Amino acid sequence: MKIYVYSIPKSGTYFIADFLGRVGFTNTGYHVMANYFLDTHSVDLAVNASTPAAVMKSASFVQTLRLVPPRGVAFGHFPAPYLPDLIPRYTFICAYRHPRKTLLSEFVDFRFRRTDIDWLASDAVSSDQDAFCLYLERHGPSHMRIFSEMLGVATLVQDELFVHMDPQRFHFVNFDHVLADSKAMTQLGRRLGVSADDARRAYAETLSAETKTKATNIGIDRNALWSPAAERAYRDLGAEAYVKRGKSLGWAF
């Protein structure tokens, strides 16, 4: 078995990979894209958080996933599960979260941790509220496209006509449920052959660990970012329609 953690941005990508690395799997640190990957274990967390392109290596997603050893873990937002026959030994953990949370969390990451997104820097936009609106307008559609792609995967998994999408290979996880208590990860661990005791231990260790995108030491009033203009930009993304579709597929928000 190999594992690909397929996630919507800010839905526990690195958290889940770290957890898996603590229960007997090998976390390669490979963040998979279509034609390259980020070798996140090759540099320290500070570089990963501020300038992720520093660890970019050219390779197709198939090449990257074939580099993963048995019982290895890779992750990313690229929809590799659409082509499960190309990577037959993989199990897919699909992590999602409500878009109001993922959009806001990604904005915080872009503005306060990354140093390579000039158009969101304080020198370009002084107001955090204005910067959030700009993010929603400029990057929000790309973010929601990833959400839509995962909904598409979930739809195919439930359609009996798509026999190549074996439901046994897919596990959908709400990251908010993961953060709330250990039950979600204990259940996931059981499906992967991990004992409940090992899962609970690993969960506690992962909660206290620092990861690439963990938003620590960032003092900002997140609720204040939801200005009337930001709410309008959010509505324009049609995000709530995506949530409704997710619920119809059994996703819990």
From TrEMBL:
Record SUPFAM superfamilies: P-loop containing nucleoside triphosphate hydrolases (SSF52540)
Domain of life: Bacteria
Protein name (Swiss-Prot/TrEMBL): Sulfotransferase family protein
